Amino acid sequence: MNLGNVHNVYFVGVGGIGMSALARYFIAAGKNVSGYDKTPSEITRALQDLGVEVHFEDTLAAIDKKYLNSETTLIVYTPAIPEKNKQLTHFKTNGFNVLKRSQVLGLITENTVCLAVAGTHGKTTTTSILGHLLAECHVELTAFLGGISENYNSNLILKGQKVSVVEADEFDRSFLTLSPDLACITSMDADHLDIYGEASELEKSFVEFSKRLKPQGTLFVKKGLPLKGITYAIDEDADYVATNIRIENGSYVFDVKTPKQNIENVLFNLPGRHNLSNALIALAMAVEFGCAPYSLVSALASYKGVKRRFTYQIKTDEFVFIDDYAHHPEEINAVHQAVREMYPDDSVLVIFQPHLFSRTKDFIDEFAKSLSQFDEILLLDIYPARELPIEGVTSEWLLSKITNPNKGLIQKSEIVSKVQESNAKVVMTLGAGDIGAEVKNIKEKLSIAS
Question: Domain 110-301, what architecture?
Answer without folding.
Answer: 3-Layer(aba) Sandwich (3.40)
